[in-house]
Design a protein that fits this description.
Layout lengths: L10 E2 L3 H4 L10 H4 L1 E2 L13 E6 L14 H9 L11 E7 L5 H17 L3 E6 L5 H10 L4 E6 L16 H7 L5 E9 L6 H9 L3 E4 H6 L4 H6 L3 E5 L20 H13 L5 E5 L8 H12 L19
Parallel strand pairs: 2-4, 3-4, 3-5, 5-10, 6-7, 6-9, 7-8, 9-10
Antiparallel strand pairs: 1-4
Helix pairs in contact: 3-11, 4-5, 10-11
């Protein structure tokens, strides 16, 4: 049995009692089935196919004081859903402890993710600001694994004039040396938020960018794009405001069904082994509604076809 207790120092437990407001969970609900890190009871990760980690770090988004409780808000809704695929085993390792600085949080999250993917677990990160995608990438970089990245976002985060890491983290991920990104896909960008020269640069690098209108019209074309990736990152700014009121970017974007289709494609992929769901801001209004939406994004990922064969992904771990 693998020893995962070495990563427990980076994590803080959660309480299903608190998450359920002392109501508990009915048989068949995810909250009834999932193995959770509670108090001194660290779950047997060896038995899990999918592992959840919360990370409320948002200093990269300009929030310097608070460590977001967004992961727990998502859990409150996610755990109440019914689970139809009993052959998929899930564990929740609680929340990453806040680092002294942003770089410390990156390092801790990288270490936890790296340990889990090396043991062939699929990791879902509940963020947190979108720049935590860097920690996802660092986990592969540590193994010197060459990967393909798919990012779902209304914006292309290459704004070098911004002081916030979440606005320009892609520059480091795509241009740092040595670099382990073989190919980058950007799904759902909205043209009026992206400078034309930025897209020209992406095209020269032979990266693929898909406008939100094109994706909505031909969403099935995204399946092979997502299938070939290892790292998948989802920023809720890709959703229209109506479907994600904590998204203040635009009234346009994906609806709930389209977002779940994209996540389902990620679940069908034999290659993807880290997923990040980012940028849920509890400080904005309608926080319960968006938590419900994000909880449903997790569900289509946990499909029977997602259960990997023992030899999957040998090339990237």
């Amino acid at each position: 049995m693998s020893d995962f207790l070495n990563i427990a120092d980076f994590l803080s437990p959660i309480s299903k009692t608190e998450l359920s407001f002392d109501q508990g969970y009915k048989e068949g609900m995810i909250g009834f089935t999932i193995k959770v890190y509670e108090e001194d009871d660290f779950p047997d990760v060896d038995e899990a196919d999918i592992v959840f980690i919360g990370c409320g770090e948002q200093r990269g988004n300009g929030h310097h004081l608070a460590y977001s409780a967004a992961p727990d808000a998502i859990r409150q809704q996610f755990y109440k859903l019914y689970f139809w695929h009993q052959d998929i085993r899930m564990a929740d390792l609680g929340n990453l402890r806040k680092g002294a600085g942003l770089a410390d949080t990156y390092a801790a999250l990288k270490t936890v993710i790296n340990e889990l993917i090396n043991e062939r677990k699929t990791v879902i990160i509940l963020g947190g600001s979108h720049d935590l995608t860097l920690a996802q990438y660092y986990a592969y970089e540590q193994n010197k694994s060459v990967i393909e990245v798919t990012n779902v976002d209304a914006l292309v985060d290459l704004d070098l004039d911004s002081d916030f890491r979440c606005d320009n983290f892609l520059m480091e991920m795509l241009t740092s040396e040595p670099n382990y990104v073989r190919h980058y896909n950007h799904i759902g960008f909205q043209s009026y938020y992206v400078h034309p020269r930025m897209l020209e640069t992406m095209d020269k690098l032979r990266f693929d960018c898909f406008r939100v209108g094109h994706v909505k019209e031909s969403i099935d074309e995204m399946e092979p794009v997502i299938r070939n990736s290892q790292l998948f990152s989802f920023d809720i700014s890709a959703l229209a405001y109506t479907y994600a009121p904590a998204n203040i970017n635009s009234p346009n974007g994906f609806n709930g069904e389209e977002s779940c289709v994209l996540m389902r494609y990620a679940g069908m992929s034999p290659n993807i082994n880290t997923i990040g769901i980012y940028k849920y801001d509890l400080n904005l209004l309608f926080r319960i509604g968006i938590a419900v939406s994000l909880s449903h994004l997790n569900q289509p990922f946990a499909l029977p076809v997602h259960k990997k064969s023992p030899e999957y992904n040998d090339s990237i771990v």
